[in-house]
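Minimal example, chain plus FE2/S2 (inorganic) cluster.
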Amino acid sequence: MTARRYPVPIAVEHGKTYYWCACGQSNTPPFCDGSHQGTSVRPVAYTAPRDKIVFFCGCKKTGQPPVCDGRHKDL
Ligand code: FES
């Protein structure tokens, strides 16, 4: 899987930890599936402070991983 141009909205659950794929190779985006193994890239953990929708970065260029900061608009 290659990085996407747009963020990925996910309904997260309070207290649950999610591991965002930072390498762009996951087959289960936006989350890590271990495909980064053998590289120096590691996933970024995100623990939900409450139930809500989170727009996880899809382009991998965000300055605030793992969430979208709008940087995809410059691609
Ligand atoms: Fe991309 Fe794990 S698969 S960081």
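The chain has one domain: 1-68. The chain has a mean pLDDT of 94.
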